[in-house]
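stage 2 :: seqdesign
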C-alpha cells in the first residue's frame, strides 16, 4: 500500500475508522471482563467526542467523492454509531455499504461481514447463501466466518449445525472472554 497523505480522502477515512473503533473501547468489555458484542454495548459508554471527530473526518473524506476502502469501513462504523445512539438501526444502509465494500475492496472479511448484514436484513437464508459462495479453503481457519455461520444457522432454526459452527469458532479464537461468549451462545441453543 502506498503512503497516505494526511489530507487525502483515504487518510481521512482511516482516521474516521480508527476514531469510531476507539470510541467504543470502554463498552467492549463488561465490568467482569466479559466480551460485549456491538449490538449489546451500552452507547452511554461510547466516547461522543471521538464519534464527533470521526464524523468530521468522514465528512472531509466524502467531499472528495472518490471511493475508498477506509472511507467505506468508516461509513459502516458511522451507521453502527448512529444506531447505537438513536436506537434506530438502518439495516439497508449497512447492506448497501457492505455491498460496496465487497465489490470494490473484496476480501474474506468483507464477504463474511456482508453475509452477516444480509442475514440480519433479509433473513438467515440470505446470509447463508452468501457464506456458501465464499471459497471454503479461505475460511477454514477464519474464526469470524464460523461465528457468523453459527449465528445464521441458529436464526434459521438449524440448532445442531449452529452448535457445530460455534464449536469450530471457539476452537479458532484465542481470547478467553470471546470463547465464553461463543460458548454461551451455543449453550443457549439447547
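stage 2 :: out
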Amino acid at each position: 500500500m502506498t503512503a497516505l497523505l494526511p489530507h487525502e480522502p483515504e487518510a481521512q477515512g482511516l482516521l474516521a475508522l480508527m476514531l469510531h473503533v476507539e470510541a467504543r473501547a470502554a463498552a467492549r468489555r463488561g465490568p467482569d471482563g466479559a466480551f460485549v458484542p456491538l449490538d449489546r454495548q451500552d452507547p452511554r459508554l461510547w466516547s461522543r467526542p471521538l464519534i464527533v471527530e470521526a464524523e468530521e473526518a468522514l465528512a472531509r473524506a466524502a467531499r472528495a467523492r472518490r471511493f475508498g476502502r477506509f472511507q467505506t469501513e468508516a461509513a459502516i462504523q458511522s451507521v453502527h454509531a448512529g444506531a447505537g445512539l438513536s436506537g434506530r438501526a438502518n439495516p439497508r444502509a449497512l447492506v448497501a455499504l457492505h455491498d460496496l465494500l465487497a465489490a470494490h475492496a473484496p476480501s474474506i472479511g468483507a464477504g463474511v461481514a456482508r453475509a452477516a448484514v444480509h442475514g440480519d436484513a433479509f433473513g438467515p437464508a440470505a446470509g447463508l447463501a452468501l457464506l456458501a459462495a465464499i471459497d471454503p479453503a479461505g475460511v477454514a481457519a477464519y474464526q469470524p466466518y464460523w461465528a457468523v455461520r453459527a449465528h445464521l444457522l441458529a436464526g434459521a432454526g438449524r440448532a445442531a449445525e449452529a452448535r457445530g459452527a460455534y464449536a469450530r469458532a471457539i476452537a479458532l479464537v484465542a481470547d478467553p472472554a470471546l470463547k465464553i461468549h461463543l460458548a454461551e451462545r451455543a449453550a443457549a441453543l439447547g
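stage 3 :: structure notes
- Residues 69-86 form the longest helix (18 residues).
- The mean pLDDT is 96.
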